[in-house]
Design a protein that fits this description.
alpha+beta; Alpha-Beta Plaits; Poly(a)-polymerase, middle domain; five-stranded mixed sheet; 12% strand; seven-stranded antiparallel sheet
């Protein structure tokens, strides 16, 4: 028996090493772990996260046609450029996929992110001209549009019903073989920056898959985490949360730390690890390498701006980048609370006290705060509206940042879901989308009356939006932004009753009440690092409401104890507006007993405002330096920052239930420790499991 145990241990220890630290546990899965994993799959089934065989085969057929289409086009271009027939016959060309489809975690109806790779004699202008025209003549291709001036230029279309975002890269090669591997760094030599950006999505995706111990366990875990993040309202790179590639890297790191675990265990360990992570220490899947190609990489020793990133998750392919540069103080706080809540729920699930469905219950966003800002973007035609809201949404994080810097605001929480404007709050012919930002105001000690002026915060945001719209010649007559302050009890003026009342609803009910506009919008300022778009329509915003986690309920408790208003008036909502003229004084009706929210003016509107005036926006004097504004984090010691998984502060995590897992499928739930000493020992054991991970991390060096 001893020999058998010794052999098993030896076999485990000789297993391939993944990641920049050794694994936390090499324990193989137990029967109960497989049981919980099956129950996890069953719980995800109603949300449409698994594609059936027919749709999968349809995607493969479409990609095959597109690949042949690309080869035909490249051969035609080669002939036009007078290449010899012998060269034309083997010039090649290939379609690569990346993002959720390449990772194997796409949902029903999701789009495909793809890359067209061409040899050196095919120019980018050929792709956006002759290839675009060739696509236009194809009867199976609909909704064709090119976005040539985007950060990552792209052609978007539907091919036989499947949405495809197609990027382009020309390599410094005379031909493109079918067995081409994009992972090698030498492939980046002599390429322009747009080609490098286009290649980045494929290279990162391939590297993630290479760095995980078990691809199937990784995929199932990632499906669960992506569903959880969408359901909890924290899936959006554009709005300052995390996007698809960032969630994939966090799951991949968890898989490295528990290489033999199955999905149910990995989901629980995901929350365990990242509820205790001490940000801004970075998450790394591999030790970064320098390829001597002189491309900019994430390195806080060299780049001062990298030291200010709040939640760095570093892509594993050269040139290494931080995929979470949009994260703000508020969004990091919200995600940290969600990690802790996820840990408490999965503790309950693995103790037999709850079902997996509880993990996917949505939060009570519209009951969580006492104050909200309603941001409405409107246009006079549907086409203008889709274009306009794409730009406005890409800049909402600017508004969140402005609000965070206001001395009276503790937290600004944007809901990633947009909602159509109600008939009562818009002109009959306007197309309107609304976003809601929950606000927590700072408690004012010994203050009888405090006047909070948000004019500057809104002005700065709208200046940014209109300036960029002007620069890219997007502005059309009738494009408007309107910001309104409302209290919780006024939300029924903007939203259907079922969204603002605590009431159990079915999946079908909530789908009907959520925004039906699923048209994909073009991000005008984000790279394809986040290859999984935020507009994934495969996951419904539904299911019975859940009891709030303690961090979430603390929010409401804080409001109850330090409300900035002494009474809950349900008066008219206050418009937060900024005109293209000197800021006006506060509206008298905005004054309330206690603390008042002072706002100024009317709706910002493009009609009648000369575009030239937008180039020189009037910016009021900023408020005094906020007392709640966090100082920029001082750069930690280089060896600690760049070693990847550095020791998190276990003391900062909330009190959790002990993780006594039930080893019997049909038996009674595992007993909880019944003495304070046992509870404390169980908590210490859980903390030690994660902190043990980081013992050697501080000794590692970046790039060594």
């Amino acid at each position: 028996m001893k020999e058998m145990s010794s052999t098993m241990l030896s076999g485990q220890q000789s297993q391939k090493h993944y990641g920049i630290t050794s694994a936390i546990s090499l324990a193989p899965p137990r029967e109960i772990d497989h049981h919980y994993t099956k129950k996890l799959c069953d719980a995800m089934q109603p949300f449409g996260v698994f594609e059936d065989e027919e749709e999968l085969n349809h995607r493969l057929a479409v990609l095959g046609k597109l690949n042949n289409f690309v080869k035909e086009w490249i051969a035609e271009i080669s002939e036009l450029k007078n290449l010899p027939p012998s060269a034309i016959s083997c010039v090649g060309g290939k379609i690569f996929t990346f993002g959720s489809y390449r990772l194997g975690v796409h949902t029903k109806g999701a789009d495909i992110d793809a890359l067209c790779v061409a040899p050196r004699h095919v120019e980018r202008t050929d792709f956006f001209q002759s290839f675009f025209e060739k696509l236009k003549q194809h009867e199976e291709i609909k909704d064709l549009r090119a976005v040539e001036d985007a950060f990552v230029p792209v052609i978007k279309f539907k091919f036989d019903g499947i949405e495809i975002d197609l990027l382009f890269a020309r390599l410094a090669l005379p031909s493109i073989p079918d067995n081409l591997d994009l992972r090698g760094d030498s492939i980046l030599k002599n390429l322009d920056i747009r080609c490098i950006r286009s290649l980045n999505g494929c290279r990162v995706t391939d590297e993630i898959l290479y760095l995980v111990p078990n691809k199937e366990n990784f995929r199932l875990t990632l499906r669960a985490i992506k569903l959880w993040a969408k359901r909890r309202g924290i899936y959006s790179n554009m709005l300052g949360f995390l996007g698809g590639v960032s969630w994939a890297m966090l799951v991949a790191r968890t898989c490295q730390l528990y290489p033999n675990a199955v999905a149910a265990t990995l989901v629980h360990k995901f929350f365990l690890v990242f509820s205790k992570w001490e940000w801004p220490n970075p998450v790394l899947l591999k030790q970064p390498e320098d390829s001597n190609l002189n491309l900019p990489v994430w390195d806080p020793r060299v780049n001062p701006s990298d030291r200010y990133h709040l939640m760095p998750i570093i892509t594993p392919a050269y040139p290494q980048q931080n995929s979470t540069y949009n994260v703000s103080t508020s969004t990091r706080t919200i995600m940290s609370e969600e990690f802790k809540y996820g840990l408490s729920v999965t503790d309950e699930i693995l103790q037999g006290k709850a079902e997996w469905s509880k993990l996917f219950e949505p939060p009570h966003f519209f009951q969580k705060y006492k104050h909200y800002i309603v941001l409405a973007a409107s246009a006079s035609t549907e086409e203008n509206h889709l274009e306009w809201i794409g730009l406005v949404e890409s800049k909402i994080r600017v508004l969140v940042g402005n609000l965070e810097r206001n001395e009276y605001i503790t937290l600004a929480h944007v809901n990633p879901q947009s909602f159509p404007g109600s008939k009562e709050n818009r002109n009959e012919n306007d197309f309107v989308s609304m976003w809601f930002i929950g606000i927590i105001f700072k408690k004012m000690e010994n203050a009888e009356s405090v006047n909070i002026d948000l004019t500057y915060d809104i002005q700065s945001f709208t200046d940014t939006v209109y300036r960029q719209a002007n620069n890219i010649n997007m502005l059309k007559n009738g494009m408007k932004i309107e910001a309104t302050h409302v209290k919780k009890k006024q939300l029924n003026l903007y939203l259907p009753p079922e969204l603002v009342q605590k009431k159990k609803r079915s999946i079908a009910d909530l789908n009907r009440s959520s925004n039906g506009g699923s048209s994909k919008r073009i991000s005008l300022d984000s790279s394809h690092l986040d290859s999984s778009r935020d507009t994934d329509t495969g996951t419904p915003f539904s299911s019975p409401p859940c009891k709030q986690s303690k961090p979430a309920s603390d929010t409401e408790d804080r409001w109850d104890s330090c409300s900035i208003d002494h009474e809950e008036n349900v008066g008219s909502p206050k418009k937060l507006f900024v005109e293209d003229s000197p800021a006006t004084s506060a509206a008298p009706e905005a004054q309330e007993q206690g603390t008042s929210i002072t706002v100024a003016g009317s709706v910002l509107e493009m009609g009648g405002i000369p575009l030239s005036s937008l180039e020189k926006p009037i910016v009021p004097s900023p408020p005094a330096e906020p007392s709640v504004k966090a100082k920029p984090p001082s750069p930690p010691a280089v060896s600690a920052v760049l070693a990847g998984d550095v020791k998190p502060n276990a003391a900062s995590s909330p009190k959790e239930e002990p993780n006594g897992l039930d080893d019997s499928i049909n038996g009674a739930p595992a007993k909880r420790p019944h003495s304070p000493v046992e509870e404390e020992m169980a908590k210490r054991h859980k903390d030690a499991e994660v902190t043990g991970l980081f013992s050697a991390a501080g000794e590692q060096q970046f790039g060594s």
